[in-house]
Amino acid sequence: MNAATLNSSRFWAYLQLLRPANIVTAWADILAGFAASGCIVFIAPSSSDLISLAWLLLATTGLYGGGIVFNDVFDAEIDTVERPERPIPSGRASQLTASILGSLLLSIGILAASQVTWLSATLACGIAAAAILYDAYSKHHPIFGPLNMGVCRGGNLMLGVSAVSPMVSNYWFLALIPIVYIAAVTTLSRGEVHGGKSTTGVFTLVLISTVLAGLLGLSFLENYHLLAVLPFIVLLAVRVLLPFIKAVSKPSPENIRTAVRAGVLSLIVLDAAVAAGFASLPYGLLVLILLPISIALSQIFAVT
């Protein structure tokens, strides 16, 4: 193998560590939170709004990318046994270089967030800390692990809202929706390697149903448009409930991986529903455009 080929192979390995399809779902969190903050950039795009949005998208790219790189860093030993094809256990990426990359990405995420508001920077620090806590300690805990990962995604949604700082205190409860949703997906994902239990699958279905009910319940807010949300709720239910029900009825590793993959990518549909509710149907469709992009990337890069 010549030097050019070797460098190309290493670059691809570190790109695989980032899981680009997942990062796109994090962009959807920001766009949804931005809608809740009252910044409707596609109708009245002020330069300050666009700049804030750009910084927040860069921030979530760094935070999510860094967190997911450290996921593989801390899992290197167990992946050597369970998933030896991954970049670090296969030797295509070094654990030290991956650690440096993860640290750099998290730093970029915090720095980018600090360009928006002080609250954005604080949230970014909290997300980074929660991501490292999950990667290093809590991921193997049956209760704290899913909750911890949910907090990361709920914080990411609030990062989008933080473009207008006072709105975070007004809409803090929105973070509960991705927290419950991700808790469901993370709980189910525990059976990806060895298979799962039907009781675990039933619990995840209850959580997903709670999320759907929560999206409908937001209609009690004066500025939330239920009719704009309904198409996205139907799409979310179809995309998530069907594979989840299959995973419950037959909790094989393959069915669970399929359900988890659908759950992760469908975060975009969830965010599109929130975006449509606070902004409009066209804005929700704008967020939904990220779904085919994420699906296309998931054909190239692993999601879980």
From TrEMBL:
Gene3D superfamilies: UbiA prenyltransferase. It is found in: Membrane. GO terms for cellular component: membrane. PANTHER family: CHLOROPHYLL SYNTHASE (PTHR42723), CHLOROPHYLL SYNTHASE, CHLOROPLASTIC (PTHR42723:SF1). The keyword Ribonucleoprotein does not apply. Pfam families: UbiA. It comes from the Bacteria. Its main location: membrane. GO terms for molecular function: transferase activity, transferring alkyl or aryl (other than methyl) groups. CDD domains: PT_UbiA_1. InterPro entries: Prenyltransferase_related, UbiA_prenyltransferase, UbiA_sf. The chain crosses the membrane at residues 21-44, 50-74, 95-112, 118-137, 171-189, 201-221, 227-248, 260-279, 285-303. It is a multi-pass membrane protein. Signal peptide: none annotated. The keyword Membrane applies. Keywords: Membrane, Transferase, Transmembrane, Transmembrane helix. This is Polyprenyltransferase.
